[in-house]
Each structure stands twice: as C-alpha cells, then as structure tokens.
Design goal:
Elements lengths: L2 H13 L12 H20 L1 H5 L8 H26 L5 H9 L16 H22 L5 H29 L3 H20 L11 H6 L7 H19 L9 E3 L4 E3 L5 H8 L6 H14 L1 H18 L1
Antiparallel strand pairs: 1-2
Length: 311
C-alpha cells in the first residue's frame, strides 16, 4: 500500500474513535506531535517533584510528611509511565532526557516558580494538580492508545493529589489569622501561573488545529482553562479565600465565569527559560541524573546477570 492508502486507513480509525497503537501506520507529523506532547508531560511530572520534594523534611506533621512523600513518589511514577509511552513512538529514554537537559524539550511553566511556604504545598495540590486533572481527564480519550491508558491510571492518583492540596488550604484558611494570610498569599502567587498551564489562547497555539483533528486533544486550551476556572472559583468560595482577579465574575448568559487577561509576556519569559527557577530546576535535574548513573548501571548489570542465569 502507498502512503495515501495508509493515510486513509489512519483517518478512518481516527474518525471511528479507534485507538492508534504503536504497530499502526501513522503520519510523521502525528508521531512528532505525540513525542513533543508526551515528553513535555513526562518532563513536567519529573521536574514537578522538585518544589514538593524540598518540603518533605519540613512538613508540619508526620501525617503531612507521609502524604507528601507518597505524592512525590506518584509523580516519579507518572513520569516513567509517560516516558514509556513516548518510547513506543521510536524515541529512546536517553534522547528524552538529553532533550530536557539541553532545553530542546519543554516542561510546564508552572514548575519554574518557587515554593516558599507550607501553604504552597496546598496551592500546588489544589491549583496545579487541579489544572492537571482537567487536562488529563480529557486526555484519557486521546487517540493514541499507550498515552490514553497511562492517563487513566495517572488521573486516579492526581485526584488524590488535588484533594491533599485542598485539604491543606482548607485547614489553613480556617486556622489562625497568620495561617489564613499564608493561604491567601499562596493562592495569590499560584493562581495566574496555574491558568498559564493550559497554554496560549487557541488563536495563538500553532499545534492545536492538528491535535484536535487527530483527537490527540479533545478540548482546546481555552475550553480547558474555562472549565478549571469554573470549578476552582466555587471551591475558593467554600473555604473563604479570594481569587486574585478583580474581573472574575459569573456570567449568567454564558454560563461561565468571566475573568481577567493573563500576563502572556510573563508566560513567554518563563517558556524561554527566564522564569524565577528555570536554571535551578534543570541544574538540579542534571546533577541528580549524573549522580544516579551508578544506580542505573547496577540495575542494568543485575538484570543482565539474571537473564544469563535464566537462559
């Protein structure tokens, strides 16, 4: 069969809501888009361990420490699921890591902001993981099979992460005046970067068109952002915190909240590597990856020894 016949078969599978599997023929642009998106997603999970991992030893109670430790461990697992999904598209783990460390691949801009108080652990769980869930629930129906199946498991664990964060914010919002102030400050700092997680407006997103057509994405950036705002604004009301947006207002005619304009200049700065923690996050990853080389080498040698013994 020539490429046109393969393409027609591919389009037929997409139109019928069938999953594309690694063994199936796919357009090169489809494969490249998936590698870019899945690797970015995986890198975000791995880099996202850093701001929370820094608070494990400083958590205010043993219970909080255990929950945060479990959450960071989950995120490491999510990165592995996603890297494994990306590898089914013909890219190696070594290539993925090299692209992250050399800046060829991106990760979510949200992880380039500092986590300065315990309330930030609440804001990250509530807002950052909450935004991730909105996006990832949609991705459970993505057209690429390995990515879709990874999302089903990841979403179950992310829902725990979001509840953990909201619980922290609830306790602090209902605690002392100082705790409440700390919770509001964390919300003020993390709100706008959380909205940026969904990416630029649809009109400024060059990758959205094909991603929607090929059902890699089921919803656009603006649709997902609006869904997140609608859910989160009500959650803030419940615990008595104020969203830091004077233009946030329920629009009865639209059935959604109206909200203020995002600072896209800030978004662009962070994407280009000039955020508060970009260099720190990558430098830490490079250091940890190099120092952990002996573990990977030992595991590989042990696996080879077992395989030889079983032969």
């Amino acid at each position: 069969m020539n490429d046109q016949i393969y393409l027609e078969h591919f389009e037929k599978l997409i139109g019928a809501d069938k999953k594309i599997e690694p063994r199936d023929w796919m357009p090169e642009d489809y494969r490249k888009h998936l590698i870019r998106q899945i690797s970015q997603h995986g890198h975000s999970e791995i880099i996202g361990m850093q701001p929370e991992g820094n608070w494990i030893t400083r958590a205010p109670s043993l219970r909080a420490k255990l929950i945060l430790l479990a959450k960071v461990q989950d995120e490491g697992g999510h990165g592995l699921y996603l890297y494994s999904a990306a590898e089914t598209l013909g890219i190696s783990r070594e290539e993925l890591i090299d692209q992250l460390e050399t800046g060829k691949a991106k990760y979510s801009t949200i992880f380039n902001y500092p986590a300065v108080t315990w309330a930030d652990m609440g804001a990250i769980g509530w807002l950052v993981d909450g935004a991730a869930i909105v996006n990832q629930i949609s991705l459970q129906r993505t057209s690429y099979g390995p990515y879709s199946r990874a999302m089903i498991r990841i979403c179950k664990e992310e829902s725990f992460h979001q509840r953990q964060g909201y619980e922290i914010m609830t306790h602090m919002a209902r605690g002392t005046a100082e705790q409440r102030e700390m919770a509001q400050d964390a919300l003020n700092r993390w709100w706008w970067p959380s909205l940026m997680m969904f990416g630029p407006h649809d009109t400024n997103s060059p990758n959205t068109g094909k991603a929607i057509r090929w059902k890699i994405k089921r919803d656009s950036n603006d649709e997902l952002r609006q869904s997140f705002i609608d859910k989160t604004a009500k959650q803030a009301d419940v615990i008595g915190l104020k969203i830091p947006d004077p233009k946030l207002k329920w629009n009865e005619a639209r059935g959604h909240y109206d909200f203020g304009e995002i600072d896209w200049a800030e978004f662009d700065r962070v994407v280009k590597g000039n955020g508060p923690c970009n260099k720190q996050r990558i430098a830490h990853h490079v250091k940890a990856h190099r120092e952990g080389a002996w573990v990977r080498e030992a595991a590989t040698a042990y696996a080879a020894k077992r395989a030889k013994k079983a032969a």
